[in-house]
Amino acid sequence: MEPSIxxxxxxxxxxxxxxxxxxxxxxxxxxxxxxAIQATGRPAVIHCGGLERIDITGAWILDRKIxxxxxxxxDIILENFRPEHFRFIEHVDALxxxxxxxxxxxxxxxxxxxxxxxxxxxxxxxxxxxLIFLGKCWAVTGHTILHPARLRWRxxxxxxxxxxxxxxxxxxxISFLIAIVTAYQGAAQLKRFGAEIFSINxxxxxxxxxxxxxxxxxxxxxxxxxxxxxxxxxxxLNEEIDALKTTGLEPMEVLVLPxxxxxxxxxxxxxxxxxxxxxxxxxxxxxxxxDTNWLLYESRLTTAIRMNDFWIGISKAPVFGLLIGITxxxxxxxxxxxxxxxxxxxxxxxxxxxxxxxxxxxxxxxxFTLLDL
Length: 373
Prior knowledge:
The protein is an alpha/beta fold. The protein folds into two domains: 102 residues, STAS domain (Transcription Regulator spoIIAA), CATH 3.30.750.24; 252 residues, no CATH class. It contains twelve helices and four strands, in the order ββαβαβαααααααααα. It has a four-stranded mixed beta sheet with strand order 1-2-3-4, with helices on one face. The longest helix has 39 residues. The protein is elongated, with a radius of gyration of 37 Å. The relative contact order is 0.09.
């Protein structure tokens, strides 16, 4: 039966007779029916003898109208409610009043104000936690060296495939394109002096000594470092790391060590691939834009290449891979119990990896210069 309200005036009171089914199926009709209840300055009696059914929707609509009348100063009297209906309406009234009071008490949390020392304090805290994590890594590595059978080679091979084989196309393409840009800009400047042929020497030294290994490290930081942080962070969020500890497995040994070892092993190979693609890109541009042919380019390249430059670039690669692997795993293990933390730590893994790689490259440059290499 459709919900309805009929108004009657009796003995100085306004009587509203409620009837029908006040349920979610008739929500629209319930709202329209409550419009008949008006504040008239006289006590209002809500007579519910004809109420058949009521659910939380109908109770809320009726309770909202009663509250509005009471706020306007009207005297509301409830009559002939069935006990179960009356208790239900009281429960809804208490529930929504409690919610409204909670919302009134709620205040927006004040914006956190950062003091000048906060950044330094957080940086020192992260540094301390990083050194502790590094110590754990060395301890696990030493234990694995003493017990080689504990190393999970299947996991290492899987991470090598994910970190290096799948990364090879993007690393090769970036190195190829950057070498083309470097060769083009170098040739344009050297052409003023009639020495554009020496752009081959410029690109060769740049690619072998710095550009190949740096591009590889940056791509691995953005690809593998972020993947390590996201994977380990998600596992921590899902309590899978706690499950590993419960079963007697060490997460550092199962999750961290294979990833770090994979990057240390594969970064030199990716660097070599990036070097070759960079030299190929330089050759393509040189042959296409100058009178140089491939035989002359090969001859000039053979003269320009110094094995010293090649080995300097390759020697940096394992160190860069180690930094990226440790940083990515550290931020993955630092994830707290929230999805926001996963995103934040993944971003931090990329930023900190690139920062550490650049710092390490600067130290290498100073050391090699002092050693006259």
